[in-house]
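Support request from a user on the community tier.

User writes: "When I paste my structure tokens into the form, the page sometimes reloads and wipes my input. The last time it worked, I copied everything first. Here is what I submitted, just in case something in the input itself triggers the reload:"
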């Protein structure tokens, strides 16, 4: 499993170096209010026009659900369509099946509503973010919040694969984003086997806390 993780990670890094550059975007503002479609458009256009840079034309999302709703499609989707911003989609997975069903409903609705205008922008679909870290001993020690274990993630990944099958999003690659030590932990090998490529969060300025 360890060698597979490293090979997959190397492939992911190579893909990123090939030209996909962007930022992470949450569903709420700093005051807790939902990010509107107009605000997403503004953020995406600002990223493209940063002085001294070029090519920041992609966005990573953490959820498919619009803030302030139970299962409406996040307004980042029409904003991405209008600004030609590619998307690493995210479905929030640190929740029970009832709540995850809302993520699935929003993804299904986005595909149905926007079709290839939406699916042609997908660079990947991330099922969860740092769930294994929060679930593991280090995350618990750091009081990182609620996470889920590998069995739950594998189940959620299978549900996403079933949902996109025979749709315009059927060719989308599925990943999970987590910390490096989650990927080198053999107890999480089932997640490695369930995804198409590995994605890793890395924060060098506090990485010493994760060893």
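"...and here is what came back when it finally went through:"
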């Amino acid at each position: 499993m360890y060698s597979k993780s490293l090979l997959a990670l190397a492939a992911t890094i190579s893909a990123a170096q090939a030209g996909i550059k962007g930022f992470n975007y949450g569903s709420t503002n700093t005051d807790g209010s939902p990010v509107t479609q107009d605000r997403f458009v503004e953020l995406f256009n600002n990223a493209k026009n940063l002085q001294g840079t070029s090519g920041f034309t992609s966005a990573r999302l953490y959820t498919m659900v619009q803030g302030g709703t139970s299962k409406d499609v996040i307004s980042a989707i029409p904003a991405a369509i209008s600004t030609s911003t590619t998307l690493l989609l995210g479905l929030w997975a640190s929740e029970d099946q009832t709540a995850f069903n809302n993520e699935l409903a929003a993804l299904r609705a986005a595909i149905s509503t926007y079709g290839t205008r939406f699916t042609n922008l997908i660079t990947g679909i991330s099922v969860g973010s740092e769930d294994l870290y929060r679930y593991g001993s280090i995350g618990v020690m750091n009081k990182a919040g609620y996470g889920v274990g590998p069995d739950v993630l594998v189940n959620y990944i299978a549900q996403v694969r079933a949902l996109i099958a025979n749709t315009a999003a059927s060719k989308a690659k599925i990943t999970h984003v987590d910390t490096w030590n989650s990927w080198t932990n053999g107890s999480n090998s089932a997640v490695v086997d369930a995804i198409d490529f590995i994605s890793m969060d890395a924060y060098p300025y506090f990485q010493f806390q994760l060893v």
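Agent notes: The reload is a front-end session timeout and is unrelated to the input. The first strand starts at residue 21 and ends at 25. The beta strands are 21-25, 56-61, 86-91, 122-129, 174-179, 197-201. Escalated to web team.
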